[in-house]
Design a protein that fits this description.
284 residues; alpha/beta; eight-stranded mixed sheet; six-stranded mixed sheet; 14 strands; 24% strand
Amino acid sequence: MIKLVASDLDGTIIDKNNSIYENNFKAIADLNNRKMNFVICTGKTYPVTRDICSKIDASYGIFGNGNQIIDLRTGKEIYSNFLSKSDILACIDIAKKHDLHVHIYTNTTVISEELLYLDLRNYKLQSFSENASKMQFEIVEDIRRHVVEHNDPICKLVISSPTSTDVVKNEILSVLDVTATTIKKFGDYKDLVIDKEYEYLDISPKNVNKDTALQILGNYLNISTNEMLTIGDNLNDFDMVKNAGVGVAVANAYDELKEVANYTTKNPVEKGGFAEAVYKFVKF
């Protein structure tokens, strides 16, 4: 029996236009009426997604691809694991050596030398979307120097490229004990908000990912992985979909995710693929 439903946000509940299909709201409301644990699992930070989590009434949130878990009913932090300053500086140095773009997130601010990729997307979403949280955006001359001179906890570090990030990813993993998750925005997955194709690396501490965070939350709630329904669309959802009791890929998901999923929805995100999964596998 399913006791917890965990879902990615972008591409799974929220479509490319930052809209949420009406039936997805209904499915979430039905989960809450049934007192089912509903968990958001996103690569975004908590500050960036605070407002949308409130609107969709989730019970718990897994943020930063697993580096933070929040009880959204109380605001209590259940778990956090952020990069050390030395790891952050090393990642910046490697990215800069390859002329790649870096931006970082604190609890309140997106910091970048120039808004270009995911940082530009977040800025544009904030300017025109009612579903976007209000973050500050700070443009600095030298992001490395900013990190050295400031002690604000950094929740997330992202390295972006208009082409493959594989060379940088391999170099980072060869010298640092961290996790580097690849997210691709090419072809059908092009970022329509900023009209760009690109790839980015989400850098986290070692063994931080959505699946591990779900195991930590499961232990906290006394719920086993076999009692979880997980739903996603992208490569950072791979382990949580593969290892859940029931793992679902929405119709618009990457083929690699569909291959490990127990079920692929007939409907894409724009037509309520999330809701389809919930009503198929949760007993109401």
